[in-house]
Amino acid sequence: MFKIYRKLGPPQGYVIDQFSLGVSLFPKSGSSSLKYLLFEAEHGRTFERKKQHIHQWAAKNRIASLENCKYRLILIRDPIERFISCYNNKVIQQRHLDYLDIGSLSLSDPKREFPFPSLDEFVDNFSEMRKLPVINHHTKPISEFLQRRNLNFFSEVFTFDQIDILAKRINQIAATNVTLLHFQKSEKNQWAKARKRGDLSQLSQSQIIYLMKLYSSEYHFLNPFYSKNEILKKWEMTREALV
Question: What three-state secondary structure class fits 14?
Fold first, then answer.
């Protein structure tokens, strides 16, 4: 299971003091897109990436405690859908695991059709995969980032399918009209021989059960916004659609 922090601290996020606004964002939950929007809402211009990514700039200049913010917003997402998004973006699209030897899995074997792991291999070897910092960071539960601080701390909670509503709310608070652009979207790899991107329907019954168990505490934390029953029904519907 994931490490759980015992010491509670004030949740952090992207803070703009002049608006008394703080937004807690997490990997594979639209954080890149919203940080670009927040930057433009504050500065009146788009962020220009030169030597720094928006995440690096924000970490140095805007990530702080939300404790004193009037508006404390948070965007959350189903943990298994975040897990699959991590696979699509970091493994298939950006190919961070190519040619590595991870546990008993050799991705450097020249006989492999693809160097990177399939979704099956990613799930079945996740206990080893998650030891890699890039994978651990992008699959870590939101509850761990928050050190299990209750969601009641936030003045407004938005689910992932409400990301456009969150963008409108930020514009309302900042009195701006910035368009939300979608960065880091896990589109299909353009490499001709790449596997198709992973989705919920590709998980076997044992794999969906494993992931629900892995994120059991996270589902409890995110209740009533997300639940194991909800993702299980969604998985069943995608499997039925295949048939």
Answer: strand
Q: How far apart are the first and last CA of the chain?
A: 33
Cis peptide before 224 (omega within 30 of 0): yes
Burial 87-121 (b: 16+ CB within 10 A, else e): bbbbbbbeebbeeeebeebebeeeeeeeebbbbeb
Closest by Cα among 238, 233, 230, 227 to 203: 238
- What's the fold here for domain 12-242? Rossmann fold (3.40.50)
Q: Are residues 12 and 66 in contact, defined by beta-carbon separation less than 8 angstroms?
A: yes
- Indicate if the alpha-carbon torsion angle 37, 61, 74, 236 is positive or negative: positive
Assign residue 100 a region: left if phi > 0, alpha if psi is -120 to 50, beta otherwise?
Answer: beta
> β-strands 63-65, 71-76: how paired?
unpaired
Question: Which tens digit of pLDDT belongs to each residue from 207-243?
Answer: 999 999 999 999 999 999 999 999 999 999 998 887 6
What is the DSSP secondary-structure string of 20-61? TEEEE--TTTTHHHHHHHHHHHHHSS----SSS-HHHHHHHH
Residue at 29: amino acid letter: S
Domain borders along the chain are 12-242
- 61-96 pLDDT tens trace: 999 999 999 999 999 999 999 999 999 999 999 999
pTM of the predicted protein model: 0.90
Q: What is the pLDDT of residues 27-55, one digit of tens each?
A: 999 999 999 999 999 999 999 888 789 99
Question: Cα Rg for the chain, rounded, in angstroms?
Answer: 19
